[in-house]
Amino acid sequence: MTTTQLSNFGPADQRATAQALDAADTLAHFRDQFVISNPDLCYLDGNSLGRLPKTTVARVNSFLTEEWGAELVDGWAHWVDEAQTAGNQLGRVALGAAAGQVLVQDTTSVNFYQACLAAIRARPGRKTVIIDAANFPTDRYILQGIAEQLGLNLVTLNNDGSGGVGAVDLATDCELITPELLTPLLNDDVALVTLQVIHYRSGSRPDVPAITQLVRDHGGLVVWDASHAVGSIDLQFDAWGVDLAVGCTYKYLNSGPGAPAWIYVRKSLQEQLRVPIQGWFAQDAQFEMGPIFEPTKTIRRFQVASPSIIGLRMVQASLDMYEAAGIEAVAAKAALGTELLIALYDAWLAPLGFTLLTPREAGRRGGHITVGHRDAKRIAAAMRQLSNVVPDYRVPDSIRLAMAPLPTSYTELWDGMERMRDLVASKRYLEIEDNGSRVT
After folding, report:
1. pLDDT score recorded for residue 1
2. Cα–Cα distance between 272 and 399 in angstroms, integer?
3. pTM of the full predicted structure?
4. What does each C-alpha distance from 161 to 157, 274, 424 come to in angstroms?
5. Gap between the Cα atoms of 381 and 397, Å rounded
């Protein structure tokens, strides 16, 4: 989406423009399918935890009363493969992945550990692994642990100035890692590179197919973390040649706090890789329960144990909505919503001393924007306590603002930005120290 398309609806700083966008929005009716207990709340944090779909409540209740309660252990006859069933749906709806390559299971952290160690072991003799400093903390910490355990050379691309183990300074724009920046660090000792599809803090979006192919040309593998991408941009893993990817379902996919995560493994790689946690669900003849681990040749070889069926019901309830909406329409709305946010930043926030930490080009960002301010922590806390707006704060000085395409209206974005402007212009935010919670 471009500024020209946004301007077709009127000046960004007029509320009537946001209302016109809502009137033309083919996805607007999905908002009524979510639990919105406070209509005056501007919820701009769907990139951290999505709203609750109404169908989720019915789906979980139905599972409790009609499946678990009625079927007892016999329910496993149709529950046993649901990590794959949900994975196939997720792949079809949101990842651009053919069947047999995705499992919905475990946490992002567990899936990330499994994918990274499997990739490293598939490249014996190579001793270098690469991550970036702006990557999500769990990913950085897990890879640090793997490097320590295996005696690997960890290179941290210092794209945000925070450093890290084996830091290599890079001059980046909005934390963005490009093929040009990565190329000098690749050689025949690199086993693994792991990056984010959308940077969790800045919202920038690297060139996934180009980087994947670049690393492959040097003999390595790439593990992509798509937690902040899935459900906000049009992912095409098969077409892009992605090797491995992981992500969560509780952000844009609205599947609930702690809902099962997912792992993608390209079909042609599945027999080559062996995950470190050899659970019984990966066993070929699973219910023979034999003495030796003999993994199946399918995607199930990446499954450790019993899937969370309650969690899968929550994922499936949300995926049904996304399948009805269509990922192209979802991604288009996210792009136009973030365009509106940037236009309002230019009109209202830049004059108040804010900086934009997200790329302006729609193809280089995801479903949220990030703005910087020296008092960001206090402003974010005051937005919640004084303005009925929920953003989130990220150290050291940034506030993230998101367009979650299905539950969020353009008017909600506009109202939230107006309240943020008024709060800072009046300096009322100085009344608040923090939000009273260690969770930001």
Report:
1. 40
2. 42
3. 0.97
4. 9, 35, 27
5. 13
